[in-house]
Amino acid sequence: MATEQKPKSRFGMVIDLDRCNGCGACAAACAVENNVPPAHPTATDRTGLTWMRVYRADNRRPFPDNRSVYFPVSCQHCGNHTPCMAVCPQNAVDINPETGVVSQIPVRCLGCRYCMAACPFHARYFNWFDPKWPHEMENALNPDVSVRMRGVVEKCNFCHSRWQAAVARAAANGNHDIDPADYVPACVEACPEKAMTFGNLDDPKSEVARQSKAPIVFRLLARLNTDPKVYYRSDRDWVRRLGDTDVAQGESEVSRG
Amino acid sequence: MKLRGFIPFGVGLLVALGGGWFAVPRAMYRRTEQPIQFSHKTHTSEKVGMSCQDCHSLSADGKFSGIPRLETCAPCHTEPQGKSAEEKRLVDEYVSKNREIPWLVYARQPENVYFSHAPHIKLAGIKCERCHGPHGSTGRLRSYEQNRISTYARDVEGYSLVKLNAADWQQGMKMNDCSHCHQQRGVQESCLTCHK
């Protein structure tokens, strides 16, 4: 198990659930950016792949009062006792000391899936099938993200290739620190409702740090005390209460990748 | 005498070790020649006066252009400048046909490795020779040696088998070598620093 240390910066996001309309653009953009293959014909809810899953939940009231909400759930990048990192026998998971991002190194993964069992957010996915793209789409794969093989676990890493590109751009100009505008994950960029805000939670000047301190902001399963870096925001009480229940009990909307 | 048995044994051992020393790298690596015998020496000589940066330049976004494309060679070599047969071949086979030269990249890393030259050159101030060896003054390109099993180049795996008196670049560019240098310099390293 890798040693836990305080990262230099902590990247995270705030998702405004009152703005999210469940369109799934984040999931689609994520799949394209990170070379997540289209679902295998026999894939199910349980065996499909998606780094960003949009869950639907409602307030369990009959028709005129029924209201629904969509929860885009990716890896929550736990900063405290990171469950997947703690159980990985291969050291294939660590916390990046620069960004606080929880990593997953597929070539090191042996496919035991302990991390999937440990993850309270069901944010990790296993490659049950060989990745396959329609012929023409293979030319459109992102060269900055390696393709995973069957038999390993994968998950969101806040588009780490974009962080690497931002570091390279800063270094080319002689800077050690990146320009925050250079590092935005694909889901945040794609959201048509601008429901997601991304940035360094430790930078007091950043928008995400300001938003994450609002009283209407909450985190999923906060009682587990894993210090996730993904925050959710809603004005509605019943939505905030959902953060402490298992969303997977609700209906899932986009789940096959 | 006890020694009489030892001498043939010792000779045999030396022959076996020496043979292995000679044969193993040759059996392990497939040698291929570069498509054009490019001379760094001629280009960096006083007469031509080019510097490394003229062809191996760092782009503004930090992505390294590595080996230059044909468009860098073409302006000077639309006609042969000298009498060398290799240059004539360059003009005939590549420049006049506008075909890219299929260079074999000595330092090609596996697909899941991320490396950017920008932080290493601009921030750490590491010289090119540290990893690529002193080839800026060589008259010919050495053969490209590729491991028959792993398919990685010998520049990545390392030229030195025993690491005695080996220059830094001869140790190779394996994960251990990268990690070693990062630790020596106290640079933070984690999986996603060098993997993608």
Spans of chain B with pLDDT under 50 lasting ≥5 residues?
none
Low-confidence stretches of chain A: 252-257
**Element-level helix/strand string of chain B:** HEHHHHHHEHHH
Mean pLDDT of chain A: 89
How many helical stretches of chain B? 10
In the CATH hierarchy, what is the architecture of chain A at level 2?
2-Layer Sandwich
What spatial form of chain A do the alpha-carbon principal axes imply?
A: globular
Report on this structure.
The complex is a heterodimer of chains A (257) and B (196). By secondary structure, chain A is of the alpha+beta class. Chain A has a single domain (11-254), classed as Alpha-Beta Plaits (2-Layer Sandwich), CATH 3.30.70.20. In chain A, 19% of the residues lie in helices and 14% in strands. Chain A is built from 7 helices and 9 strands; from the N terminus they run E-H-E-E-H-H-E-E-H-H-E-H-E-E-H-E. Chain B is mainly alpha-helical and 196 residues long. Chain B has helices at 3-28, 40-44, 52-55, 70-73, 85-95, 117-123, 129-132, 154-157, 175-184, 191-194, and strands at 29-32, 144-147. A two-stranded antiparallel sheet of chain B has the order 1-2. In chain B, 12% of the residues are buried. The mean pLDDT of chain B is 87. The interface between A and B is medium-sized, with 33 and 21 residues.
